[in-house]
Input
Amino acid sequence: MEIFTPLLDLATPELYRVNAYRILDLHPKASSRDVRKKLDKIRKMQKLGGSLPTPIGVAALNPPPTEEHLRDAGQRLADPLRLLLDELFWFWPLTDNRDLALEALKQNKMEAAAQLWAEAAAVEKNRPLSIHNLAVLYHLVALENKVGDQQLINYWNEALKYWYQVEQDDEFWGLYRNRVHELDDPRVTDHDVDMIRRDLPLAILGINSRIAVNAAESSDEKTMLFHLNLINQAPCNEASRNRALRDSIMPISKRIKTLCRKARSDIEKNPEKGDDYFESLFNQTKPLMEIQNHVLGEDNPTRNDNQDEIVLASLECIISYGNETEEWVRTRDMMRILVPLAVSMSTQERLNRNLSVITSNAADDLCWFCETNPGNKKYEYEIKMHGDVQQEQTYEGRNITWRHITITVPRCGRCAQAQSNRVWRSFYKGSFIGMFLGACSMVGFNIYYWADMNQEALTGAILGAGIGATVGAVLGLLLQNFAKLPEGIKPSSEMNSFPRILDQKRMGWSFGARPAAADQ
Ligand SMILES: [Zn+2]
Output
Protein backbone atom coordinates (compact mmCIF):
# COMPACT_ATOMS: atom_id res chain seq x y z
CA MET A 1 0.00 0.00 0.00
CA GLU A 2 1.53 3.23 -1.23
CA ILE A 3 1.17 5.99 1.36
CA PHE A 4 0.10 9.48 0.39
CA THR A 5 3.44 11.22 0.83
CA PRO A 6 2.35 14.89 0.72
CA LEU A 7 0.19 14.28 3.78
CA LEU A 8 2.69 12.13 5.66
CA ASP A 9 5.49 14.63 5.02
CA LEU A 10 3.39 17.29 6.66
CA ALA A 11 2.76 15.13 9.74
CA THR A 12 5.44 16.49 12.06
CA PRO A 13 5.18 18.27 15.42
CA GLU A 14 5.54 21.47 13.32
CA LEU A 15 2.27 20.71 11.53
CA TYR A 16 0.47 23.84 12.69
CA ARG A 17 3.51 26.10 12.73
CA VAL A 18 3.93 25.87 8.97
CA ASN A 19 0.23 26.24 8.20
CA ALA A 20 -0.17 28.99 5.62
CA TYR A 21 -3.59 30.12 6.89
CA ARG A 22 -2.18 30.53 10.35
CA ILE A 23 0.87 32.41 9.15
CA LEU A 24 -1.19 34.80 7.02
CA ASP A 25 -3.95 35.08 9.62
CA LEU A 26 -6.61 33.94 7.13
CA HIS A 27 -9.14 31.14 7.10
CA PRO A 28 -9.89 28.46 4.51
CA LYS A 29 -12.84 30.34 3.09
CA ALA A 30 -10.53 33.15 2.03
CA SER A 31 -10.62 33.56 -1.75
CA SER A 32 -7.43 33.55 -3.78
CA ARG A 33 -8.06 37.28 -4.14
CA ASP A 34 -8.03 37.63 -0.35
CA VAL A 35 -4.77 35.68 -0.20
CA ARG A 36 -3.13 37.87 -2.85
CA LYS A 37 -4.36 41.01 -1.11
CA LYS A 38 -3.00 39.83 2.19
CA LEU A 39 0.41 38.95 0.72
CA ASP A 40 0.61 42.32 -1.11
CA LYS A 41 -0.27 44.11 2.09
CA ILE A 42 2.45 42.27 4.01
CA ARG A 43 5.07 42.94 1.34
CA LYS A 44 4.21 46.64 1.22
CA MET A 45 4.44 46.85 4.96
CA GLN A 46 7.83 45.14 4.92
CA LYS A 47 9.09 47.49 2.19
CA LEU A 48 8.09 50.46 4.31
CA GLY A 49 10.08 48.95 7.12
CA GLY A 50 7.05 48.47 9.33
CA SER A 51 6.49 45.30 11.29
CA LEU A 52 3.54 43.00 10.96
CA PRO A 53 0.80 43.30 13.49
CA THR A 54 1.62 40.71 16.13
CA PRO A 55 -1.11 38.08 16.07
CA ILE A 56 -2.66 37.29 19.42
CA GLY A 57 -4.68 34.44 20.88
CA VAL A 58 -4.52 30.67 20.72
CA ALA A 59 -3.88 30.63 17.00
CA ALA A 60 -1.08 33.22 17.21
CA LEU A 61 2.36 32.08 16.21
CA ASN A 62 4.97 32.55 18.86
CA PRO A 63 7.63 33.48 17.85
CA PRO A 64 5.96 35.42 14.98
CA PRO A 65 6.53 34.27 11.38
CA THR A 66 9.74 35.27 9.64
CA GLU A 67 10.13 36.57 6.09
CA GLU A 68 10.89 33.00 5.01
CA HIS A 69 7.69 31.68 6.61
CA LEU A 70 5.67 34.31 4.76
CA ARG A 71 7.27 33.50 1.42
CA ASP A 72 6.68 29.81 2.01
CA ALA A 73 3.06 30.44 3.02
CA GLY A 74 2.46 32.34 -0.23
CA GLN A 75 3.87 29.43 -2.22
CA ARG A 76 1.83 26.87 -0.31
CA LEU A 77 -1.42 28.61 -1.10
CA ALA A 78 -0.47 28.79 -4.78
CA ASP A 79 -0.21 24.98 -4.88
CA PRO A 80 -3.73 23.51 -4.77
CA LEU A 81 -2.73 20.25 -3.05
CA ARG A 82 -0.79 21.99 -0.33
CA LEU A 83 -3.57 24.53 0.04
CA LEU A 84 -6.04 21.68 0.49
CA LEU A 85 -3.86 20.07 3.14
CA ASP A 86 -3.44 23.34 5.01
CA GLU A 87 -7.22 23.70 4.98
CA LEU A 88 -7.53 20.30 6.61
CA PHE A 89 -5.34 21.47 9.48
CA TRP A 90 -6.91 24.86 10.16
CA PHE A 91 -10.14 26.28 11.61
CA TRP A 92 -13.06 26.68 9.25
CA PRO A 93 -15.65 29.38 9.97
CA LEU A 94 -19.13 27.95 10.55
CA THR A 95 -20.84 30.99 9.10
CA ASP A 96 -20.15 33.76 6.62
CA ASN A 97 -21.01 36.30 9.27
CA ARG A 98 -19.25 36.84 12.60
CA ASP A 99 -17.87 33.54 13.87
CA LEU A 100 -17.92 33.80 17.65
CA ALA A 101 -15.68 30.79 18.22
CA LEU A 102 -12.94 32.17 15.98
CA GLU A 103 -13.27 35.51 17.74
CA ALA A 104 -12.92 33.78 21.10
CA LEU A 105 -9.70 32.16 19.86
CA LYS A 106 -8.29 35.57 18.97
CA GLN A 107 -9.03 36.70 22.50
CA ASN A 108 -7.10 33.69 23.76
CA LYS A 109 -10.32 32.15 25.13
CA MET A 110 -9.70 28.55 24.21
CA GLU A 111 -12.31 27.07 26.58
CA ALA A 112 -14.97 29.45 25.25
CA ALA A 113 -14.22 28.50 21.63
CA ALA A 114 -14.30 24.80 22.50
CA GLN A 115 -17.63 25.31 24.27
CA LEU A 116 -19.14 27.14 21.26
CA TRP A 117 -18.06 24.40 18.83
CA ALA A 118 -19.26 21.65 21.15
CA GLU A 119 -22.70 23.35 21.24
CA ALA A 120 -22.67 23.89 17.49
CA ALA A 121 -21.91 20.21 16.96
CA ALA A 122 -25.34 19.40 18.39
CA VAL A 123 -26.91 21.11 15.37
CA GLU A 124 -26.83 18.69 12.47
CA LYS A 125 -25.70 21.11 9.75
CA ASN A 126 -22.83 22.52 11.82
CA ARG A 127 -21.63 19.19 13.18
CA PRO A 128 -18.94 18.19 10.60
CA LEU A 129 -17.05 21.48 10.75
CA SER A 130 -17.46 21.90 14.53
CA ILE A 131 -15.99 18.45 15.14
CA HIS A 132 -13.17 19.22 12.72
CA ASN A 133 -12.43 22.55 14.44
CA LEU A 134 -12.37 20.84 17.84
CA ALA A 135 -9.91 18.27 16.47
CA VAL A 136 -7.63 21.06 15.20
CA LEU A 137 -7.98 23.05 18.43
CA TYR A 138 -7.10 20.24 20.84
CA HIS A 139 -4.34 18.93 18.58
CA LEU A 140 -2.83 22.41 18.31
CA VAL A 141 -2.80 23.04 22.06
CA ALA A 142 -1.57 19.50 22.81
CA LEU A 143 1.38 20.05 20.47
CA GLU A 144 2.23 23.61 21.40
CA ASN A 145 1.09 24.45 24.91
CA LYS A 146 3.23 23.77 27.93
CA VAL A 147 0.73 22.41 30.44
CA GLY A 148 0.69 19.92 33.32
CA ASP A 149 0.64 16.17 32.72
CA GLN A 150 -3.07 15.68 33.33
CA GLN A 151 -4.06 18.61 31.12
CA LEU A 152 -1.77 17.30 28.38
CA ILE A 153 -3.36 13.84 28.49
CA ASN A 154 -6.80 15.47 28.24
CA TYR A 155 -5.76 17.56 25.23
CA TRP A 156 -4.27 14.58 23.44
CA ASN A 157 -7.23 12.32 24.16
CA GLU A 158 -9.65 14.96 22.90
CA ALA A 159 -7.51 15.61 19.80
CA LEU A 160 -7.27 11.94 18.86
CA LYS A 161 -10.97 11.36 19.61
CA TYR A 162 -12.12 14.27 17.41
CA TRP A 163 -9.73 13.43 14.56
CA TYR A 164 -11.14 9.89 14.58
CA GLN A 165 -14.66 11.34 14.34
CA VAL A 166 -13.54 13.53 11.44
CA GLU A 167 -12.09 10.54 9.65
CA GLN A 168 -15.35 8.61 10.08
CA ASP A 169 -17.63 11.48 9.05
CA ASP A 170 -18.78 11.14 5.42
CA GLU A 171 -20.39 14.58 5.54
CA PHE A 172 -17.13 16.24 6.42
CA TRP A 173 -15.40 14.56 3.49
CA GLY A 174 -18.28 15.66 1.26
CA LEU A 175 -17.56 19.26 2.23
CA TYR A 176 -13.86 18.70 1.71
CA ARG A 177 -14.50 17.28 -1.74
CA ASN A 178 -16.57 20.39 -2.54
CA ARG A 179 -13.46 22.45 -1.90
CA VAL A 180 -11.67 20.43 -4.60
CA HIS A 181 -14.50 21.17 -7.00
CA GLU A 182 -14.41 24.87 -6.11
CA LEU A 183 -10.65 24.97 -6.74
CA ASP A 184 -11.32 23.43 -10.16
CA ASP A 185 -7.65 22.70 -10.74
CA PRO A 186 -6.46 19.55 -12.56
CA ARG A 187 -3.66 19.23 -10.02
CA VAL A 188 -6.12 18.05 -7.34
CA THR A 189 -8.78 15.38 -7.77
CA ASP A 190 -11.33 13.40 -5.79
CA HIS A 191 -8.76 10.64 -5.65
CA ASP A 192 -6.47 12.88 -3.60
CA VAL A 193 -9.31 13.41 -1.13
CA ASP A 194 -9.75 9.62 -0.84
CA MET A 195 -6.03 9.18 -0.18
CA ILE A 196 -6.02 11.94 2.41
CA ARG A 197 -8.99 10.41 4.21
CA ARG A 198 -7.44 6.95 4.13
CA ASP A 199 -4.06 8.08 5.51
CA LEU A 200 -5.32 10.69 7.98
CA PRO A 201 -5.11 8.36 11.05
CA LEU A 202 -1.58 7.37 10.10
CA ALA A 203 -0.59 11.02 9.65
CA ILE A 204 -2.06 12.00 13.01
CA LEU A 205 -0.40 9.11 14.89
CA GLY A 206 2.77 9.62 12.85
CA ILE A 207 3.27 12.86 14.78
CA ASN A 208 3.18 10.97 18.08
CA SER A 209 5.53 8.41 16.63
CA ARG A 210 8.01 11.14 15.61
CA ILE A 211 7.83 12.74 19.04
CA ALA A 212 8.47 9.34 20.66
CA VAL A 213 11.53 8.74 18.47
CA ASN A 214 12.94 12.21 19.20
CA ALA A 215 12.35 11.69 22.91
CA ALA A 216 14.11 8.33 22.79
CA GLU A 217 17.11 9.89 21.11
CA SER A 218 17.39 12.52 23.81
CA SER A 219 16.87 9.88 26.53
CA ASP A 220 13.53 11.37 27.55
CA GLU A 221 11.90 8.12 28.51
CA LYS A 222 8.80 9.69 30.03
CA THR A 223 7.81 11.55 26.86
CA MET A 224 8.65 8.52 24.76
CA LEU A 225 6.36 6.21 26.73
CA PHE A 226 3.64 8.86 26.89
CA HIS A 227 3.41 9.03 23.09
CA LEU A 228 3.74 5.30 22.53
CA ASN A 229 0.83 4.82 24.93
CA LEU A 230 -1.21 7.41 23.04
CA ILE A 231 -0.62 5.47 19.83
CA ASN A 232 -1.46 2.18 21.52
CA GLN A 233 -4.75 3.49 22.88
CA ALA A 234 -5.72 5.77 20.00
CA PRO A 235 -9.28 5.29 18.73
CA CYS A 236 -8.53 4.27 15.16
CA ASN A 237 -8.29 1.21 12.99
CA GLU A 238 -5.80 -1.48 13.97
CA ALA A 239 -3.85 -1.19 10.71
CA SER A 240 -3.10 2.53 11.18
CA ARG A 241 -2.07 1.99 14.77
CA ASN A 242 0.30 -0.83 13.87
CA ARG A 243 1.65 1.08 10.94
CA ALA A 244 2.37 4.14 13.14
CA LEU A 245 4.14 1.93 15.66
CA ARG A 246 6.17 0.27 12.93
CA ASP A 247 7.03 3.64 11.43
CA SER A 248 8.44 4.74 14.75
CA ILE A 249 10.70 1.68 14.62
CA MET A 250 12.23 2.30 11.20
CA PRO A 251 14.11 5.47 12.11
CA ILE A 252 15.15 3.79 15.35
CA SER A 253 16.72 0.86 13.52
CA LYS A 254 18.47 3.31 11.25
CA ARG A 255 19.70 5.32 14.20
CA ILE A 256 21.05 2.21 15.95
CA LYS A 257 22.96 1.22 12.82
CA THR A 258 24.40 4.73 12.53
CA LEU A 259 25.52 4.71 16.16
CA CYS A 260 27.18 1.29 15.74
CA ARG A 261 28.95 2.42 12.57
CA LYS A 262 30.17 5.53 14.36
CA ALA A 263 31.55 3.51 17.29
CA ARG A 264 33.42 1.25 14.86
CA SER A 265 35.00 4.16 13.03
CA ASP A 266 35.84 5.90 16.32
CA ILE A 267 37.84 2.93 17.64
CA GLU A 268 39.79 2.79 14.43
CA LYS A 269 41.09 6.26 15.20
CA ASN A 270 41.44 5.94 18.98
CA PRO A 271 41.45 2.27 20.00
CA GLU A 272 42.51 3.13 23.56
CA LYS A 273 39.25 5.03 24.04
CA GLY A 274 37.20 1.90 23.30
CA ASP A 275 35.79 2.00 26.84
CA ASP A 276 34.34 5.50 26.32
CA TYR A 277 32.94 4.58 22.93
CA PHE A 278 31.36 1.45 24.39
CA GLU A 279 29.79 3.45 27.20
CA SER A 280 28.32 6.07 24.93
CA LEU A 281 27.07 3.49 22.42
CA PHE A 282 25.48 1.57 25.29
CA ASN A 283 23.79 4.64 26.80
CA GLN A 284 22.59 6.02 23.49
CA THR A 285 21.09 2.78 22.26
CA LYS A 286 19.44 1.80 25.54
CA PRO A 287 16.31 3.98 25.21
CA LEU A 288 16.05 3.10 21.52
CA MET A 289 15.99 -0.58 22.42
CA GLU A 290 13.37 0.14 25.06
CA ILE A 291 11.07 1.54 22.39
CA GLN A 292 11.64 -1.52 20.27
CA ASN A 293 10.94 -3.83 23.19
CA HIS A 294 7.81 -1.87 23.95
CA VAL A 295 6.52 -1.76 20.40
CA LEU A 296 7.73 -5.01 18.91
CA GLY A 297 7.97 -7.20 21.99
CA GLU A 298 11.13 -8.99 23.00
CA ASP A 299 10.87 -11.77 20.46
CA ASN A 300 10.92 -9.95 17.16
CA PRO A 301 13.50 -10.43 14.40
CA THR A 302 14.06 -6.70 13.77
CA ARG A 303 14.47 -6.05 17.45
CA ASN A 304 16.83 -9.01 17.85
CA ASP A 305 18.98 -8.00 14.87
CA ASN A 306 19.38 -4.54 16.30
CA GLN A 307 20.25 -5.90 19.72
CA ASP A 308 22.95 -8.19 18.28
CA GLU A 309 24.31 -5.35 16.18
CA ILE A 310 24.80 -3.31 19.36
CA VAL A 311 26.43 -6.25 21.18
CA LEU A 312 28.90 -6.88 18.34
CA ALA A 313 29.87 -3.21 17.93
CA SER A 314 30.27 -2.94 21.72
CA LEU A 315 32.42 -6.07 21.72
CA GLU A 316 34.73 -4.51 19.13
CA CYS A 317 35.07 -1.35 21.24
CA ILE A 318 35.89 -3.40 24.35
CA ILE A 319 38.44 -5.63 22.58
CA SER A 320 40.21 -2.57 21.13
CA TYR A 321 40.39 -1.07 24.58
CA GLY A 322 41.77 -4.31 26.06
CA ASN A 323 44.41 -4.83 23.38
CA GLU A 324 45.51 -1.25 23.59
CA THR A 325 45.61 -0.80 27.39
CA GLU A 326 46.02 -4.42 28.62
CA GLU A 327 43.62 -3.51 31.42
CA TRP A 328 42.19 -7.01 31.32
CA VAL A 329 40.11 -6.89 34.48
CA ARG A 330 38.21 -3.82 33.32
CA THR A 331 37.95 -5.30 29.84
CA ARG A 332 36.46 -8.46 31.27
CA ASP A 333 33.98 -6.56 33.45
CA MET A 334 32.74 -4.53 30.48
CA MET A 335 32.40 -7.66 28.38
CA ARG A 336 30.31 -9.34 31.06
CA ILE A 337 27.71 -6.57 30.72
CA LEU A 338 27.03 -7.82 27.18
CA VAL A 339 26.42 -11.46 28.12
CA PRO A 340 22.69 -11.19 28.94
CA LEU A 341 22.11 -9.01 25.85
CA ALA A 342 23.36 -11.25 23.04
CA VAL A 343 20.49 -12.91 21.20
CA SER A 344 21.57 -15.13 18.30
CA MET A 345 23.67 -18.25 18.83
CA SER A 346 26.48 -16.89 16.67
CA THR A 347 26.65 -13.63 18.63
CA GLN A 348 26.59 -15.52 21.94
CA GLU A 349 29.38 -17.82 20.77
CA ARG A 350 31.54 -14.97 19.57
CA LEU A 351 31.04 -13.12 22.83
CA ASN A 352 31.80 -16.17 24.99
CA ARG A 353 34.90 -17.04 23.01
CA ASN A 354 36.29 -13.55 23.56
CA LEU A 355 35.19 -13.49 27.16
CA SER A 356 37.07 -16.66 28.02
CA VAL A 357 40.31 -15.32 26.49
CA ILE A 358 39.92 -12.01 28.32
CA THR A 359 39.02 -13.78 31.58
CA SER A 360 42.24 -15.77 31.55
CA ASN A 361 44.18 -12.59 30.72
CA ALA A 362 42.41 -10.86 33.58
CA ALA A 363 43.25 -13.66 36.06
CA ASP A 364 46.93 -12.81 35.62
CA ASP A 365 46.20 -9.22 36.55
CA LEU A 366 43.75 -9.76 39.35
CA CYS A 367 44.91 -9.37 42.96
CA TRP A 368 45.67 -12.92 44.07
CA PHE A 369 44.58 -12.27 47.64
CA CYS A 370 41.04 -11.04 47.08
CA GLU A 371 40.64 -12.10 43.42
CA THR A 372 38.35 -9.11 42.99
CA ASN A 373 40.38 -5.94 42.51
CA PRO A 374 42.94 -5.40 39.81
CA GLY A 375 46.51 -5.71 41.13
CA ASN A 376 48.47 -2.55 41.83
CA LYS A 377 52.11 -2.47 40.68
CA LYS A 378 53.08 -0.72 43.94
CA TYR A 379 51.97 -3.63 46.12
CA GLU A 380 52.73 -6.68 44.02
CA TYR A 381 55.16 -9.40 45.23
CA GLU A 382 58.11 -10.46 43.14
CA ILE A 383 59.02 -14.07 43.83
CA LYS A 384 62.31 -15.40 42.49
CA MET A 385 62.50 -19.08 41.66
CA HIS A 386 65.13 -21.30 40.15
CA GLY A 387 65.19 -24.77 38.57
CA ASP A 388 66.84 -27.01 35.98
CA VAL A 389 69.90 -27.19 38.21
CA GLN A 390 72.76 -29.05 36.46
CA GLN A 391 75.93 -30.11 38.29
CA GLU A 392 79.10 -30.99 36.44
CA GLN A 393 82.38 -32.12 37.91
CA THR A 394 85.33 -30.42 36.16
CA TYR A 395 89.07 -30.19 36.92
CA GLU A 396 88.52 -26.86 38.64
CA GLY A 397 85.75 -28.22 40.80
CA ARG A 398 81.99 -28.48 40.50
CA ASN A 399 80.27 -26.42 37.82
CA ILE A 400 76.63 -25.62 38.62
CA THR A 401 74.17 -24.11 36.11
CA TRP A 402 70.51 -23.27 36.62
CA ARG A 403 67.69 -21.19 35.26
CA HIS A 404 65.75 -18.60 37.22
CA ILE A 405 62.60 -16.55 36.82
CA THR A 406 60.74 -13.83 38.69
CA ILE A 407 57.06 -14.42 39.20
CA THR A 408 54.87 -11.44 39.96
CA VAL A 409 52.01 -12.07 42.39
CA PRO A 410 49.51 -9.24 41.87
CA ARG A 411 48.16 -7.57 44.97
CA CYS A 412 45.77 -4.66 45.38
CA GLY A 413 46.17 -1.74 47.77
CA ARG A 414 43.31 -2.87 49.97
CA CYS A 415 44.80 -6.32 50.54
CA ALA A 416 48.28 -4.87 51.11
CA GLN A 417 46.83 -2.56 53.74
CA ALA A 418 44.83 -5.29 55.48
CA GLN A 419 47.77 -7.69 55.52
CA SER A 420 50.23 -5.15 56.89
CA ASN A 421 47.73 -4.03 59.55
CA ARG A 422 47.46 -7.62 60.65
CA VAL A 423 51.24 -8.03 60.98
CA TRP A 424 51.56 -4.90 63.09
CA ARG A 425 48.54 -5.74 65.19
CA SER A 426 49.98 -9.16 65.90
CA PHE A 427 53.41 -7.67 66.67
CA TYR A 428 52.05 -5.06 69.12
CA LYS A 429 49.72 -7.52 70.81
CA GLY A 430 52.59 -10.04 71.25
CA SER A 431 54.98 -7.40 72.65
CA PHE A 432 52.43 -6.04 75.07
CA ILE A 433 51.41 -9.41 76.45
CA GLY A 434 55.08 -10.51 76.62
CA MET A 435 56.09 -7.30 78.41
CA PHE A 436 53.31 -7.69 80.95
CA LEU A 437 53.99 -11.36 81.64
CA GLY A 438 57.80 -10.77 81.77
CA ALA A 439 57.45 -7.94 84.29
CA CYS A 440 54.99 -9.91 86.40
CA SER A 441 57.21 -12.96 86.50
CA MET A 442 60.34 -11.00 87.54
CA VAL A 443 58.45 -9.07 90.21
CA GLY A 444 56.93 -12.32 91.45
CA PHE A 445 60.36 -13.96 91.44
CA ASN A 446 61.80 -11.08 93.54
CA ILE A 447 58.97 -11.09 95.99
CA TYR A 448 59.34 -14.79 96.40
CA TYR A 449 63.08 -14.61 97.19
CA TRP A 450 63.48 -11.39 99.14
CA ALA A 451 59.92 -10.83 100.17
CA ASP A 452 60.33 -7.07 99.70
CA MET A 453 60.76 -4.50 96.94
CA ASN A 454 64.28 -3.28 96.30
CA GLN A 455 66.56 -2.00 93.52
CA GLU A 456 67.11 -5.49 92.09
CA ALA A 457 63.39 -6.23 91.99
CA LEU A 458 62.79 -3.04 89.92
CA THR A 459 65.72 -3.80 87.59
CA GLY A 460 64.44 -7.35 87.33
CA ALA A 461 60.93 -6.10 86.41
CA ILE A 462 62.29 -3.81 83.67
CA LEU A 463 64.55 -6.59 82.37
CA GLY A 464 61.66 -9.06 82.51
CA ALA A 465 59.39 -6.67 80.65
CA GLY A 466 62.04 -6.13 77.97
CA ILE A 467 62.71 -9.84 77.47
CA GLY A 468 58.95 -10.53 77.61
CA ALA A 469 58.20 -7.87 74.97
CA THR A 470 60.87 -9.22 72.60
CA VAL A 471 59.76 -12.83 73.00
CA GLY A 472 56.10 -11.72 72.71
CA ALA A 473 56.74 -9.71 69.53
CA VAL A 474 58.56 -12.65 67.94
CA LEU A 475 55.75 -14.99 68.97
CA GLY A 476 53.25 -12.41 67.66
CA LEU A 477 54.95 -12.36 64.27
CA LEU A 478 55.15 -16.15 64.19
CA LEU A 479 51.49 -16.52 65.12
CA GLN A 480 50.19 -13.71 62.85
CA ASN A 481 48.44 -16.24 60.66
CA PHE A 482 45.93 -16.78 63.45
CA ALA A 483 44.99 -13.10 63.54
CA LYS A 484 41.85 -12.17 61.63
CA LEU A 485 41.79 -10.63 58.14
CA PRO A 486 38.71 -9.04 56.56
CA GLU A 487 36.40 -11.50 54.81
CA GLY A 488 37.63 -12.58 51.37
CA ILE A 489 41.29 -11.61 51.78
CA LYS A 490 43.89 -14.36 51.91
CA PRO A 491 46.90 -13.95 54.25
CA SER A 492 50.13 -12.92 52.56
CA SER A 493 51.58 -16.42 53.13
CA GLU A 494 49.10 -17.63 50.54
CA MET A 495 51.26 -16.05 47.86
CA ASN A 496 53.02 -19.43 47.68
CA SER A 497 49.90 -21.01 46.32
CA PHE A 498 49.70 -18.57 43.40
CA PRO A 499 48.99 -20.86 40.40
CA ARG A 500 52.13 -19.95 38.47
CA ILE A 501 54.29 -20.64 41.56
CA LEU A 502 52.57 -24.01 42.04
CA ASP A 503 53.20 -24.81 38.37
CA GLN A 504 56.93 -24.11 38.80
CA LYS A 505 57.05 -26.16 42.02
CA ARG A 506 55.46 -29.09 40.22
CA MET A 507 58.26 -28.83 37.68
CA GLY A 508 60.76 -29.17 40.55
CA TRP A 509 61.66 -25.51 40.87
CA SER A 510 62.53 -23.93 44.23
CA PHE A 511 62.37 -20.47 45.76
CA GLY A 512 65.32 -18.10 45.49
CA ALA A 513 67.29 -16.72 42.57
CA ARG A 514 70.03 -19.35 42.86
CA PRO A 515 70.42 -22.86 44.28
CA ALA A 516 72.03 -23.19 47.74
CA ALA A 517 74.69 -25.51 46.27
CA ALA A 518 75.96 -22.63 44.12
CA ASP A 519 76.94 -20.68 47.25
CA GLN A 520 79.09 -23.43 48.73
ZN1 LIG B 1 43.19 -7.68 46.76
User: Anything to note?
Assistant: The chain is about 65% helix and 5% strand. Residues 367, 369-370, 373, 411-412, 414-415 surround zinc ion (CB under 6 Å). Strands lie at 381-394, 397-409, 510-511.
